[in-house]
Amino acid sequence: MRMSRYVATILAVACLTIAARPALAQTAVIVHRSSAVSDVKLDDLRRFFLGQGALAANGRQVILVELSPIRTRFYKRLLGLSPDDVRRRWIGVVFRGDALTLPFELDDATAVKKFVAEHPGAVAFVEVSDLDDTIKALRIDGKRPGDPLYPIK
Amino acid sequence: MQTNWRFVLPAAIALTASTVMAQDTQIRGFADVTYRTGSKGTPAPAFGLGQYDLFITSKLTPQFRFIGETVFEYDGEGFIVDVERVIVSYTPREWFKVGAGKHHTPIGFWNNAYHHGAVMQPTIERPLMFKFEDEGGVLPIHTVGLLLSGNNIGVAHLTYDFLIGNGIGSTPISDNNRSNSYTAALRSQITSTLEVGISGYTDRAGIGTVNLAGDTLALNMTQRMFGGFVSYLGAKNELIAEYQRVMNRSEGARSHDTDAMFIYAGHRIGRFVPYVRYDMLGYQPGDPYFAVNDTKMALVGGRYDFGPMTTVKLEGRRRDAQDIGVTRDLVAQVAIGF
Q1: Which architecture characterizes domain A26-140 according to CATH?
Q2: Predicted confidence band at A94 (pLDDT cuts at 50, 70, 90)?
Q3: Residue ranges of the domains in chain B?
Q4: N or C, which end of chain A is more exposed by having fewer CB within 10 Å?
Q5: Nearest to B63 among A59, A84, A96 (CB)
Q6: Closest approach of A40 to chain B, Cα-based (Å)
Q7: Shortest Cα distance from B268 to chain A (angstroms)?
Q8: Which residues contact A34 (CB under 8 A, 6 or more apart)?
Q9: Domain B25-337 CATH (choose: 2.60.40.350, 3.40.50.300, 2.40.160.10, 3.30.70.3290)
Q10: Is B1 a residue whose pLDDT tops 50?
C-alpha cells in the first residue's frame, strides 16, 4: 500500500513535469497591446520573419526585435534556419529595397518587452514564461502559447 | 509681453534642422576577390578584384526612402565608378510603391533578388543570361525610369512591378528615341519558401543605335521578351530555374528569337552548400541586336558560409561557346559584406 502510494506520487510528479515542459520550452511571438493582429497563420509568420512582408497594414515599417539567448532555437523551430541564414535573407530584403532596417537584438526579455510595449510597430519573441500584461502574445493557427498544439515548441 | 525673436528664431531653425537631419541612413558595402585558372583558350591564371559595391539606404520620411548603389570596378583600362542604382521611392502602403531613378529591371528572379554583392548570390558569378550590360549581357539589367510596385497582396501573396523607362541605347540622363521601354512582372510567394513569377518587356531601338556586336542598327528594331521562373529556397534545399525568350525584330523583317535559361540546385549541410548550375544561351543567326554566340555552361561548386556576410566559394566549370569551343576553368572566390 505504501509502495503503491509512493509509486503513484512519483508518476504524478513525472506527469506534471512532462505536461509542464512543453509550455516552458515554447516561444511566444509578442506585439504591442494595441495591435489589431491577434491571430496569425504559421506560414504568414514564417513569411514575416523572412522579411517577405515588412510593412503593417497602416503603412508603418514593422520593427523586428530578436531576443539573443533564444534566437537560435526560435529560428530553428520556426524556419529551420540558423540566425546567420535569417540575417543573410534580411540583408537581401534590405538590398532589394523592401525593408529599411535589419532586425535588431536585445539581450534580455525585460528589455524586449519594454521595447515592444513602447513601439506599436514592434514584433518580437520571448519565452512563454516571460509573458505578462505589458504586451500581447499572438495566437498561431488559433493556438495560444502554452497550448500543447501550439506550433512553436 | 514682447517675444524676443533673437532667441526664438535660432531655436526654431535648430529644432527644424535636427528634425530634418533625423534620418536613418545606413551604409553597407560588398567586395570579393577571385582566383581563376583554366584550360587552353582561357586567360592566364590570375587573382582578380570583383566589384567593390557601396550600398546606401536612407529613410527620408516615414514614406520616402532612398537607395543608392555605386560600384567601383576595373574596366580593362582603369578603375571606373559605375552608378548602378539610384532610387527615390514613396511607399505609403506595402501594396503600392512608386520609385523613380535607376532600377534593376524586374525581369525574373535573379535580377530582383541579387544585385552587385557577390556574397548575396549562391554562385560565384551571375548566370549567363543575367550578365550585366557592360559584360555583353542579353537582358536589360538596369532601367532608368518610374517603377510602380506592390508586395504581399492577397491570399496568393502577389508582387507586381510595372516599369516605364529609357530603353535600348539610352543613357542615365537621356533617351535616344521617343519610345519608352515597358516591363511588367507578376510574382507569387506561394509559401515562405516557394515563389513563381512571369514577366514581359518591350522596347524599340532606333536607327543608329549601337548593338551588342558593336555595329549600328540600319533599321528600327522592336525587342520583346517574356519568361518566367520558379524558386525554392528552403532550409536544406535550393532550386532556381529561369527562362526568357527574347525576340528582336527589325522593321519589315522576321523576328530572331533567343532562348536564355539556367537552372541552379543546392543542398545545405550545416554551413556548407554544394551546388550545380546549368546555363544555356541559344541565338538565331542574323539577329540584328545580339552578338550571336551559342553557349552552354555547366558548373559544379560549393560554398562555405563563415557568417551571414562572409563566404568562400569554389567552382569547376565547363563552357561550350560557339566562338572558342570547349573551355574548362576552376574559380575560387572570397566574398564579404559589411
Answers
A1: 3-Layer(aba) Sandwich (3.40)
A2: confident
A3: 25-337
A4: N
A5: A59
A6: 13
A7: 10
A8: A120
A9: 2.40.160.10
A10: no
Can you count the helices (H) and strands (E) in chain B?
2, 17
Sequence ranges of the domains in chain A: 26-140
Residues of B within 8 A of A92 (CB-CB) are 113-114, 120
Rounded to two decimals, the ipTM of the complex is 0.83
pLDDT band at A17 (very low <50, low <70, confident <90, very high): low
Q: Are B302 and B292 in contact (CB under 8 A)?
A: no
Q: Which residues contact A11 (CB under 8 A, 6 or more apart)?
A: none
Whether residues B57 and A97 touch (CB distance < 8 A) is answered with yes
Please report, to the nearest 10 degrees, the dihedral formed by the alpha carbons of residues B95, B99, B102, B108 taken in order.
10
Q: pTM for the whole thing?
A: 0.87
> In this complex, is the C-beta atom of A77 within 8 Å of any C-beta atom belonging to chain B?
no
